[in-house]
Structures are given as structure tokens and as C-alpha cells.
Write a structure and sequence with these properties.
D-Maltodextrin-Binding Protein, domain 2, Solute-binding_3/MltF_N, transport, globular, 9-stranded mixed sheet, alpha/beta, Transporter substrate-binding domain-containing protein, 2 domains, two-stranded antiparallel ribbon, signal
Length: about 260
């Protein structure tokens, strides 16, 4: 089973000393599914903007890659029910005192990744970008968030904008944690739900994955999250913030796996 992952995302999927070995929340989830559904897996990295096309082209079987469910993506591929949720936020340099609220991003250089839900070229409405960050924010796109954070640390950008849980991964992991911090006063309340992407025409397989995702949420989600996001898990409300509720899981499940 060929599984797409997003490399260079602390907490979700980072490559070890071996070229093809990864560790993180998404990797632990793929291990759980491989064990419960009895398949062998091969993980390979994918840029954010290529996830759908690689599934469509049969270059991958599943995308377990911090993959947000959107209507536009769902027209091309199918999604399972969600396994994680997050709001969006902003990462800045550790010494930055100028950016404390969304309005402070006006005229600032802000980085996001190509092909992500925070990419203004992928947004369904330009107003979403203006409403989120302000019309005057200067958005720059890079191939992935690791590159964004690298350029934030070098001074090429003043902020990185994406899902808070992704930013938390950088903020809690060395060497990034020495230079960056999450802005606590900025929460962009367009909640994102991460699910597994699968090629259309595999509804039965998708439903089997949903069954095991439900098991994962009940049996392993809490411990897995604590292992890979210890900085967030210190907050007693971390499950409320990041774990889909049963109601949310069931609501998305009804619309998942190719269902209209």
C-alpha cells in the first residue's frame, strides 16, 4: 500500500536517519491501520499541491498527510471521516513583539505552502483571505511549511500562516523552537478537519478504514497525540481542541467515501 505523507512536519511526519523511515502522528496512524487491516505499507513524501493528482494517477493508494477535507478536493477524490481537527494560526520569530493580533499582519510578509487550504490561489473566495489576514498582508508561497519556517528564521518572512497544530509542531521541536513561537492571540476560526484521502471507486475500502479510524479515536488517539505533541498535551483541553467529537465524526462519516 503506497501512502502519501508530508515530510518535514514535526509531530506529524519527520524523516529519520533512514531515507524511507518516518515518525509522527500520521505515521503512527498509518501503522495502526496497517496492523488492523493487515496490509504492508510504503510511505513516501508528497508536496501539498500534488496529493490529489498522485491518488488519481495511481501513484499512491492513500494520503495520510495532514489532509484537510474541502468541497473542491472532494470533487476529485474521496475522503474518510476525520481523525483530527484544528483552527488556523500564525507563527513568528521568538523575539517578535509586533504581531499580536490579526490586524498586525497588515503590510507584513506572511508565508504559506502551495496547494494548502491557506494558499490564496486555492481559496474558493478571495474574501476568505482578506477576512482572515487583512487585505494588506503580503502573502508568499513556498513548496512546504518547512521551507516557510526556514525563511521565517532567516528573516525573509515575518510570519507563517497555517493550521495551529502544524505550527505547534515547529514551535515545540528543536531546532525550530529556539527561534519561533506561536502567537497566542491569533486564532483564525475556520476549523480544519484532517481525513485520509483515497481514490474514487474504493468505497468499500474507505468504509473499512472508517471503522478502524473510529477504533483509533477510542483506543489510541489520546496516547498517540501525547507522544508527538507533548507541548500541546500539557493543556487539559487538548482533546476538545484537536480530537473530533463523536458527533463530528459521525456527521463527516455520513458524507464520506463518495457519498453525496
Amino acid at each position: 500500500m503506497k501512502i502519501e505523507v508530508m515530510k518535514g512536519l514535526p509531530g506529524f511526519s519527520t524523516r529519520s536517519s533512514s531515507e524511507y523511515e518516518y515518525a509522527g502522528f500520521d505515521i503512527a496512524l498509518s501503522d495502526f491501520l496497517a496492523s488492523r487491516l493487515d496490509f504492508e505499507k510504503y510511505a513516501h513524501d508528497v508536496p501539498a499541491g500534488e496529493r490529489e493528482q498522485r491518488l488519481i494517477d495511481h501513484d499512491a493508494d492513500l494520503a495520510i498527510a495532514t489532509y484537510t477535507v474541502t468541497d473542491a478536493r472532494d470533487e476529485k477524490i474521496d475522503f474518510t471521516a476525520p481523525y483530527l481537527k484544528t483552527y488556523q494560526g500564525v507563527l513568528v520569530g521568538k523575539d517578535n513583539t509586533d504581531i499580536n493580533k490579526v490586524a498586525d499582519l497588515e503590510d507584513k510578509r506572511v508565508c504559506s505552502a502551495e496547494g494548502s487550504t491557506t494558499d490564496p490561489n486555492a481559496a474558493r473566495k478571495k474574501d476568505q483571505l482578506k477576512e482572515a489576514l487583512g487585505a494588506e498582508a503580503k502573502i508568499g508561497l513556498r513548496k512546504d511549511y518547512k521551507t516557510c519556517v526556514k525563511e521565517l528564521r532567516s528573516g525573509n518572512f515575518e510570519a507563517v500562516w497555517t493550521d495551529k497544530v502544524l505550527l505547534e509542531g515547529f514551535a515545540q521541536t528543536s531546532p525550530y523552537s529556539e527561534d519561533v513561537k506561536l502567537v497566542n492571540g491569533i486564532t483564525i476560526e475556520n476549523r480544519q478537519f484532517y481525513a485520509i484521502g483515497i481514490r474514487e471507486g474504493h468505497e468499500q475500502d474507505c468504509r473499512k478504514i472508517n471503522d478502524k479510524l473510529e477504533d483509533f479515536l477510542h483506543e489510541s488517539w489520546r496516547e498517540t497525540f501525547r507522544n508527538y505533541f507533548p507541548g500541546i498535551a500539557g493543556d487539559q483541553t487538548f482533546e476538545q481542541q484537536y480530537k473530533p467529537t463523536e458527533r463530528e465524526f459521525k456527521a463527516y462519516r455520513k458524507q464520506s467515501c463518495g457519498k453525496d
